[in-house]
Amino acid sequence: MDREARVFAESHFRSLEGCLPRRVCPKLDRVDFIEKPDSFSYADFFKGYLLPNLPCVFSSAFTEGWGSRRLWVTPSGKPNFDYLLQNYGDVVVPVANCGVREYNSNPKEHMTLRDYISYWKEYIQGNYSSSRGCLYLKDWHLCSWSVNICGRKKWIFFPPGQEEALRDCHGSLPYDVTSPTLLDSRLHPMRDHCSPPLEVTQEAGEMVFVPSGWHHQVHNLEDTISINHNWVNGCNLANMWHFLQQELCAVQQEIIEWRDSMPDWHHHCQVIMKSCSGINFEEFYHFLKVVAERRLLLLAKGMGPGKVEGGKGTRLGPQQAAFDICRIAEVLESVVAHPDFQRVDTSAFSPRPEELLQQLEEAVAATTSL
């Protein structure tokens, strides 16, 4: 990030006056397609899509050097089962059954990749049908980015806020946004208030940027392997904090009747929240702390814009660090003031939240000269 992009970003957040970035979304009739890597910089992506929280699709030219696109795919563009079996066959992977719903999600099991590929081959031979249902290998955690290695996908996007019109009479979101039941006004009384979604077909090698807070649904149009990466940074950190507050409120409402009779009720709410969301207020603070300390160290070292942090290709300079510190400070200030976070025992935290906030505020004041 250069100084111009940082100034642009800080001006953008000042203009929101405390509103969540994801709620600021112009009406779109298409998703932009970015074709040439050489004519598109990180600053272009940051200002055009990351900061305003808008989707885009990157062409296959951006991923043509990926080893997975060369090794995981046959010359005909199909999954290379032999290579996957040879290199990952004994790895245990999570598999969801898309044909069964449990509380608006799918039941999951674990199996070796070898067993899953055996199922996949039988599924193809059975004309994409199986007595075991449609099993979907999902959330196998590899370190990469949402890219189609092979195959094609159809994405359906609803801008932030539009998903509220999809809710049924009980307040639940639909399992399938293409279901004919959405046309029943008795079941979905607000459906007519929802704008048409944006639809994108993702071809092999293409990368889709999914903005924070956009309700979306994905359909594999053929045998597909995709690599996806969830993201959080200074642009959507406030969204993450807002989401966690909503999750805690939902848990508290669910067990409100036991508040007076359950010892450590607030602690139990945090435990339940972690089991549902994978993180609670204490862990969110530690997440902020780790990122904040790395950014503070970067600034303390006085790294120049042309240098890198953490090795080849990271390209995190002082302007990006200064931007991140500013966003972390604003969110941490809200965290420290939250009554439920104040109930968390922070006596063993190092540094204490108030101390870290002071460090960040001092750093923000010092970065005005960068």
TrEMBL record:
Q: What is any one GO biological process for this UniProt entry?
A: positive regulation of translational termination
**Which Pfam families does the entry mention?**
JmjC
Q: Which domain of life is it from?
A: Eukaryota
Q: Which GO terms describe its molecular function?
A: 2-oxoglutarate-dependent dioxygenase activity; sequence-specific DNA binding
SUPFAM superfamilies annotated for this entry?
Answer: Clavaminate synthase-like (SSF51197)
Q: Which reaction does it catalyse?
A: L-lysyl-[protein] + 2-oxoglutarate + O2 = 4-hydroxy-L-lysyl-[protein] + succinate + CO2
Q: Which residues form the signal peptide?
A: none
Tell me which GO cellular component terms the UniProt record holds.
cytoplasm; nucleus
Q: Which residues form the JmjC domain?
A: 60-248
Question: PANTHER family, from UniProt?
Answer: 2-OXOGLUTARATE AND IRON-DEPENDENT OXYGENASE JMJD4 (PTHR12480:SF6), ARGININE DEMETHYLASE AND LYSYL-HYDROXYLASE JMJD (PTHR12480)
Q: Would you tell me the protein name for this molecule?
A: Jumonji domain-containing protein 4
Organism of this sequence:
Neophocaena asiaeorientalis asiaeorientalis (Yangtze finless porpoise)
